[in-house]
């Protein structure tokens, strides 16, 4: 947040309330040291309006020379990168729009009505690419164009905005750990491919730690092991997702085996009784309770015949 920027926004006069709200939230996202890079999703969330409506107010602010937008694309993937907003009070604010900055056109008004070119990719919209029916350029898919008639409801953010993700990734993954990972993969930090530059790969590595439960040492170890199957370094961290998932699964299985108690050996079964007269004679001669009905006449006679019990002992135990 920049107090100078928000005070400057409040001092502006002649703006519609919604337009001034957009300007204020834009200034609220300004950083005095690094500039202003909020996403449209974040601004729309702050101002409580649809992205299509937001673009209309941004175009109005740009027309009034209160803001200047600088758009860039990844030269290899042609993916839109975060737009930088230069505010009117900043020293770098340009005096006139230029074709390189993405604001305005270096030509006549008739040229602005032409189809988008491969170089510009915007068509007749000198501002944001959303909300116009221009044909998509060869470099950008039609999904980049938004129809304002189908965007009446403002949807909540489903993912953290880029600047917040970048701050969290830089704070979570240290340079030392990230450097060890690059070294394990055989990547040269001085000449990193595009997929390994900036904060996105650090955030991807952090997800291996948070969502899969891998430690930093385990992540580096898995990266080293992956080079045995794939000698060439991976194009990006996403190529290692499968290996990291397998390592996390093995870790869960190993933990489960360690926690599982060994089964106790089964209790040996009692040996079967083969000599019934001797078994009952032991009960008669003992002191344990013996029901009278437990000894049949046949069993009594068998015990007496073998001399296992006496008649006196039988009478004492109540057996006739």
Automatic annotation (TrEMBL):
Stored InterPro entries: WH-like_DNA-bd_sf, WH_DNA-bd_sf
Biased composition (Basic and acidic residues): 141-164, 226-257
Feature: compositional bias, Acidic residues: 106-116
Source taxon at top rank: Bacteria
Spans annotated as Disordered: 89-164, 225-273
SUPFAM superfamilies: Winged helix' DNA-binding domain
Pfam families: HTH_36
Name this polypeptide is given: Helix-turn-helix domain-containing protein
Native organism: Tabrizicola oligotrophica
């Amino acid at each position: 947040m920049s107090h100078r920027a928000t005070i400057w926004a409040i001092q502006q006069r002649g703006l519609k309330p919604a337009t001034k709200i957009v300007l204020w939230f834009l200034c609220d996202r300004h950083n005095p040291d690094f500039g202003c890079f909020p996403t449209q999703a974040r601004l729309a969330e702050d101002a409580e309006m649809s992205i299509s409506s937001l673009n209309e107010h941004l175009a109005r602010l740009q027309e009034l020379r209160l803001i200047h937008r600088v758009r860039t694309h990844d030269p290899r993937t042609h993916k839109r990168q975060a737009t930088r907003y230069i505010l009117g009070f900043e020293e770098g604010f340009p005096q006139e729009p230029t074709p390189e900055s993405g604001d305005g056109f270096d030509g006549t008004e008739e040229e602005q009505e032409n189809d988008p070119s491969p170089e510009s990719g915007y068509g007749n919209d000198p501002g944001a690419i959303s909300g116009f029916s221009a044909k998509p350029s060869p470099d950008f898919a039609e999904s980049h164009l938004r129809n304002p008639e189908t965007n009446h409801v403002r949807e909540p953010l489903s993912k953290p905005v880029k600047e917040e993700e970048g701050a969290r990734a830089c704070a979570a993954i240290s340079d030392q750990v990230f450097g060890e990972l690059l070294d394990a993969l055989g990547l040269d930090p001085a000449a990193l491919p595009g997929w390994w530059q900036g904060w996105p790969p650090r955030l991807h590595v952090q997800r291996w730690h948070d969502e899969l439960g891998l430690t930093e040492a385990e992540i580096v170890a898995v990266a080293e092991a992956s080079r045995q199957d794939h000698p060439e370094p991976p194009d990006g961290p996403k190529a290692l997702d499968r290996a990291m998932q397998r390592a996390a699964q093995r870790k869960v299985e190993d933990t489960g085996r360690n926690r599982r108690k060994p089964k106790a050996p089964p209790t040996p079964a009692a040996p079967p009784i083969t000599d019934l007269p001797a078994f009952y004679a032991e009960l008669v001669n003992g002191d344990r309770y013996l029901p009278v009905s437990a000894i049949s006449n046949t069993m009594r006679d068998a015990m007496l015949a073998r001399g296992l019990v006496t008649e006196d002992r039988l009478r004492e135990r109540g057996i006739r």
